[in-house]
Amino acid sequence: MENPFDDTYFMKKALQEAELAYEKGEIPVGAVIVIQDRIIARGHNLTELLNDVTAHAEMQAITAASNFLGGKFLHNCTLYVTLEPCQMCAGALYWSQIPKIIYAARDEQRGCIVMDTTLHPKTTMTGGLLAEEASALLKRFFIEKRNLN
Amino acid sequence: MENPFDDTYFMKKALQEAELAYEKGEIPVGAVIVIQDRIIARGHNLTELLNDVTAHAEMQAITAASNFLGGKFLHNCTLYVTLEPCQMCAGALYWSQIPKIIYAARDEQRGCIVMDTTLHPKTTMTGGLLAEEASALLKRFFIEKRNLN
């Protein structure tokens, strides 16, 4: 039997988080952190509601996962996030020593790749999974935002 | 009359925060955020106590300052921090658009300068103020830590 808990399954869960952000008028980015096929943390962007630039989806998921694990290192964990992490989030992931980051859409302007943020040597990052779905939601958000203003 | 509220005054307040971290067994780093000669946020490193890599002094100070101001941008603010910010903190400061960062000691290993983190175009960063005091506290911490293990 196929394992239903594959990367696509978990990225869909991250997309559900992004939709929650969208419904709250936030830039729609969502994240989940997984260990042994189990989601231990969820987060979605709340920077506007909390008036706090640090409230990115990944930051909240990192804090929640550490809380669940009872330790600050996210060894053996995978982060699924709908948008390539920014410098801040990639910097936090560096400290967490998380081994695996999977993102959906690229962020060509403010993402950690174009910003050349240093990842932890233990970390691998791949992108593009469900990128179209993640980008479509982001585009929808920005088009509606523009039409409202 | 001289203004008693100069950069040295506020860096001493950041050092007091670093001492609070030291007393709790944390890597001693402290920060304050100032607007119009008034401290609106304080923070000290709590990564061990909170089991959370995101709990750096600056991150807590950014959240507290935004909370005080009721907005996520730290325009017209100055951050005083006893150690050069890391990638994560510099990335958060980027989003905050804070105009001024003053740090004490350099972090040659993990600081944002060696890591080449991008600061916001509106931000200037200077270092070296009370650097010896800040470094001495960090050295004391690491020597004691080594002797305990």
From TrEMBL, chains A, B:
GO molecular function, one term: tRNA-specific adenosine-34 deaminase activity
Active site, UniProt feature: 58 (proton donor)
Cofactor(s) needed: Zn(2+)
UniProt keyword Hydrolase present: yes
Matches recorded under InterPro entries: APOBEC/CMP_deaminase_Zn-bd, CMP_dCMP_dom, Cytidine_deaminase-like, tRNA_aden_deaminase
A matching Pfam family: dCMP_cyt_deam_1
Keyword Zinc: yes
Keywords: Hydrolase, Metal-binding, tRNA processing, Zinc
E.C. designation(s): 3.5.4.33
Amino-acid positions noted as binding Zn(2+) in the UniProt annotation, renumbered to this chain: 56, 86, 89
SUPFAM superfamilies registered for this protein in UniProt: Cytidine deaminase-like
Record HAMAP family: tRNA_aden_deaminase (MF_00972)
Descriptive protein name: tRNA-specific adenosine deaminase
Name of the encoding gene: tadA
